Amino acid sequence: MGDWSKPRQGLTKRERGIPVEIFRNIIKDTGFKVKRETFCCFPIIPIIYKLIRKSAYNSDVATWADARLSSLFKWNIRYHPTKVIHKFRPTSIYFILTKE
Predict the structure, then answer these.
(1) 60: phi then psi, degrees, rounded to nearest 5
(2) What is the pTM of this model?
(3) Is residue 49 part of a domain?
């Protein structure tokens, strides 16, 4: 996505990446099939682990909690959250793809 070390013209303060539906269409249009799709990176997990001065994603417990919370809150995916409740959602997604 480019050099994040300095502001770039024409971009918002917090880049959001590609919206999920557009991402799915790109995958489909390029001839791939989604074998598995999983949401991850629930924002509260690294905050909690930072408070206890540990790395969240080097922890089996944190990774497990992230997976569960991301799964529970995937209904709340929004490209541009406007309310506090909208911020309780996974912020990333990964795909396992196969070529059709």
Answers:
(1) -60, -40
(2) 0.76
(3) yes
Residue range(s) defining the domain that contains residue 89: 41-99
Residue with tokens 């209904």: 75
**What is the tens place of the pLDDT at every residue in 6-54?**
776 766 666 668 889 999 999 999 999 999 999 999 999 999 999 998 8
Closest CA to 87 of 44, 45, 29, 36: 44
Q: Is residue 75 part of a domain?
A: yes
Pick from 85, 65, 62: nearest CA to 75: 85
Domain annotation covers residue 48: yes
For residue 92, give Cα distances in angstroms to 5, 8, 39, 50.
21, 22, 6, 19
| 32 in a structural domain | no
pLDDT score for 17: 80
